[in-house]
């Protein structure tokens, strides 16, 4: 198993591995080019950065990620400026998602004990955002979280646990504010 495969599987991995470094470097240069391109003109550049973009997606620069190839994006996704995706594990975005500015996705974490942190010990868990979700600005989504379909995450929230479908959550840490009755809007 390669170090990249270990990282994606959530196992201990060598962060200084040559293949991981090469992918990180390739993504760095691709992001510099994308982020210096006017908004709405860099779609082809962005599709070369991420693993898969399944349809129309609009991404406003600047956009930041570490690897890119671990990110999958559905159709009809809008990512506003300043979004950061630490994609050491897969980040999967469904269809028709709105992501506010300066939202952060964090798949890696480090131990609470200081000694393993000295060696940059890292564990990584995926993040999934299901269809028709709206994520407000300045939201932090932590590792291992799934945000259920048709949910809304209020601006400034820190999401540390799964969000049920059809729910409004907010706060730090994010808590359920109320269920959303989608039938009211149909």
From TrEMBL:
Acetyltransferase implicated in the O-acetylation of Nod factors. SMART domains: Mac. It comes from Vibrio gelatinilyticus. Keywords: Acyltransferase, Nodulation, Repeat, Transferase. Residues 4-55 form the Maltose/galactoside acetyltransferase domain. One of its GO terms (molecular function) is O-acyltransferase activity. This is Nodulation protein L. One of its GO terms (cellular component) is cytosol. Belongs to the transferase hexapeptide repeat family. Gene3D superfamilies: Hexapeptide repeat proteins (2.160.10.10). The keyword Metal-binding does not apply.
């Amino acid at each position: 198993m390669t170090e990249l495969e270990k990282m994606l599987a959530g196992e201990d991995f060598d962060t200084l591995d040559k293949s991981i470094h090469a992918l990180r470097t390739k993504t760095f240069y691709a992001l510099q080019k994308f982020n210096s391109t006017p908004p709405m003109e860099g779609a082809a550049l962005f599709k070369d950065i991420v693993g898969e973009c399944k349809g129309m997606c609009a991404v406003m620069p600047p956009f930041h990620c570490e690897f890119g190839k671990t990110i999958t994006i559905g159709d009809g996704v809008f990512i506003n400026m300043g979004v950061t995706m630490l994609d050491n594990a897969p980040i999967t975005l469904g269809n028709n998602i709105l992501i506010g500015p300066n939202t952060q996705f964090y798949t890696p974490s480090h131990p609470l004990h200081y000694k393993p942190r000295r060696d940059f010990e890292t564990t990584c868990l995926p993040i999934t955002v299901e269809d028709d979700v709206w994520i407000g600005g300045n939201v932090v989504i932590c590792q291992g979280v799934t945000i259920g379909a048709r949910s809304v995450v209020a601006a400034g929230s820190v999401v540390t646990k799964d969000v049920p479908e059809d729910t409004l959550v907010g706060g730090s840490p994010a808590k359920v504010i109320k269920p959303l009755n989608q039938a009211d809007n149909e």
